[in-house]
Backbone:
């Protein structure tokens, strides 16, 4: 049995590239400013995400949200992100992708290979596309920063960088503090 071809506008390079990136068999990838990057988080990466997830899950359940690492599209650009974690309303659970302004929270955890992408490029783009909250867990700097109040020129409010061990307050609709101890592999 052969797979039925999916349709996309062949004369639209943005759509064709984003279609292709979603159909790489056996691998997940994202596009950052036109550069295809494989998505392969380390176990330390996953440890930080798991700690955050466990802390916010009771609240996201009450809010009727889904937590995951799904696709985020930035229309009109050569960007297709796979954040380390995002919180979206439950009615979007079957969507192939969401837009940043449809999220409640996006979390990125830096690694040696992508730190500046998360610190600079994604922060700028998430703000430009209206992601209301962007939590940057910077494992190299051993700090967390919460960016909020997005605008075309970036986020207008920043809480941090806060060193690991200092809680990060997630404002409404979450209204809770995230404990940040244990995000660094050097902490025991």
Residues:
């Amino acid at each position: 049995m052969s797979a039925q071809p999916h349709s996309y506008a062949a004369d639209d390079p943005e759509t064709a590239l984003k279609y292709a990136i979603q159909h790489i068999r056996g691998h997940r990838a994202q596009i950052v400013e036109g550069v295809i990057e494989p998505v392969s988080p380390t176990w330390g990466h996953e440890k930080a995400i798991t700690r955050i997830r466990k802390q916010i899950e009771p609240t996201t359940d009450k809010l009727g949200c889904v937590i995951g690492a799904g696709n985020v599209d930035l229309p009109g650009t050569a960007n297709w992100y796979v954040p380390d974690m995002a919180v979206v309303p439950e009615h979007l659970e079957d969507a192939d992708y969401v837009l940043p302004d449809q999220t409640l929270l996006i979390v990125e955890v830096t690694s040696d290979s992508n730190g500046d992408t998360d610190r600079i490029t994604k922060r700028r783009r998430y703000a430009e596309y209206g992601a209301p909250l962007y939590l940057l867990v910077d494992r190299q700097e051993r700090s967390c920063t919460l960016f909020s109040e997005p605008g075309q020129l970036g986020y207008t409010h920043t809480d941090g960088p806060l060193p690991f061990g200092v809680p990060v307050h997630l404002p409404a609709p979450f209204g809770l503090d995230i404990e940040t101890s244990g995000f660094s592999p050097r902490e025991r």
